[in-house]
Amino acid sequence: MRVGIKYGSRLGGVILSVILVNYNNGTAIASCLSTIFRYLSPRSGEYEVLVVDNSSTDNSRQLLHEGFPGLNLIENPKNVGFSRAVNQAFRRSRGKYILLLNPDMTVLPESVNKMTGFMDDHPQVGLLLPKLLNPDGTLQLSCRTFYDFPILFFRKTPLGKMFPNHRVIRRHLMMDWNHEKAREVDWGLGACMLLRRAAISGNDLLDERFFLYFEDVDLCFRLKKEGWKVIYYPEAVMVHAHMRHSSRGWISRAKWEHLKSLIKFFGKHRRFKEPVSRNNDSDLSC
Questions:
Q1: Domain spanning 14-243 has what CATH number?
Q2: Which of 23, 200, 230, 252 is deepest in the core (most CB within 10 A)?
């Protein structure tokens, strides 16, 4: 399906920059982009969409060129990793807010408008996370507490599958709190994040030491250390077809990259848990 690029009102500056990184997810990213252009509204102000293709070998580039003429597309000659690709787009972007989306996301009506509106009303929020649903409509547990040794012990060993309802896992996955209420959290899945540009210091959005995985944990960790709030906002809802490549099999490229990023994260921050602002249901006055 051929989709024309719409940019909304051109009065004033760019309000929103949408960034996606693609690697061999042609069908998924085409579907995601279709929902973006269908539901982003001119009343949201001017917006832009930037896609970085990390040298896909499937039909991704053909789908992007033919289906989305005029798309702001960066085509890398090799796979430079997720973080570096995001930074490429971030340096080109102009928006007050940055929406990071994975190709396996489906944008729903009013979801982005609600998120930017919340950020406008809460100037101390650096990063906003929507409520994510699985394709079957069930809740996806997308928020997490920061890692400590017990969490690593259960999540990164077979014990997690042996005891899926252990209190350590339930605490980490935040399974026992009301997901219909906005609240501050430690971090959330990087599948969909709305960031305030003013909260990002320097020219890089993500730390390029993380080729893949843990860049979302690191980003939330850094923002909270600098005094910004990370908020889960269930009024905005999107659908995430979570692929979870790192959970497949015992040995894989994804698992290896996950392990390397885990080691880099703790090597960088030198501790498991940082005494940053804690989860608080009521602390949303900002």
A1: 3.90.550.10
A2: 230
